[in-house]
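Chapter summary example.
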Amino acid sequence: MKWLISLWRTLTTPAKYLSLGTIGISAFIMGIIFWGGFNTAIDKTSTQEFCISCHSMEANPYKDLQKTVHFSNASGVTATCHDCHIPHNWSDKMVRKLEAVSDIYGWAFGVVDTPEKYASKKLEMASREWKRFDANKSANCKSCHQYKSMKWDKMSPLAVKQMKRAAETDQSCIDCHKGIAHTLPDMGTARAPELIANVGSGVSSLAVGSDYYSALTKPLFEDATTKTEAGTLNVATKVRVLETKDNRVKIAIDGWRKKIGAGRVIYYDFGVNILSAQLTKHAALIPGVIKTFEEKEDPMTGLIWQKVEAQIWTDKDYLLTELQPLWSYASDTYNTACSVCHTQPAPAHFDANTWPGMFQGMLAFVNMDQDTQALVQKYLQEHSSTFDKSAAH
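The structure predicted for these 393 residues follows.
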């Protein structure tokens, strides 16, 4: 401690022999040296070589980048880690550098040091980057790609239509171009994290005889113990609880099926292709699993439809007492995601059987996991002109 006290006294004692000019010049030179060293350190830690010096970064996202046009192209221009992921203006760059302290923690504790760990965290990491791009309207992208410099006559008619609309609002590039420099996370197995965050994972206890709604696409089973799946229960499907056992519940699914083959697909209503459940052929042919009632002929197709009730088992999780939280989430998602490229049509603009084709055509331009896709499509179908009789046809 003595040397520390001695140093402090030296630094706080007024100079006896140095002039004010000498002190000022010395401070100026030291400031230049400090500032130069600081900026050199910032520049050094912003290079691609520094970023991929971490094995997990070199083995995963860098390999992704090498497969894309951002790494190798006809013009010979490569976008580096810094070009896309570090803000170019000084103040935002400093904020990002402070945030990057968490990366040191991740490196030290091996958060993504294996392919399996990286895959499990990829959606979380990608979502965080997408939010950054959304927040600054993809400023890093626009340091190279500028709307005002685009040659519309070199684009396809569809691209011109979308890009001109984006230019009018200075739209964020990431709205339509996720996955352009790195492969997208596996959205199909992500289990719709944002959807779950909004509607929850289901009620704690289920009452026999009560109605519930599936919050996610769920597997079906022939009985309370088997692990072999017997089909799929679609999201936002109404079910009635018949029996509970351990972590399983026997449910009844009311709907209609086409009298074709095993008739294993159950639809929401007569004549409309809104999926409620799909059973395996084996499960559909088990006596007592599907009970049939009345039959009707569809005048549009000539097909015979049967009103049915399927009784089958599923897990207890992700069953909700109300449908409205699902519809609210679907409506918000549709209005947000599907408005980035154009003004989206109202749900009642099309009928229930037209919506699947229209909606599937939009999916190339948005980022939704499979559960959210299924939910939004079902929301549009059940709020279509087929059921909204106040809509103009």
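To summarize the output: The chain has three domains: 48-185, 198-320, 324-382.
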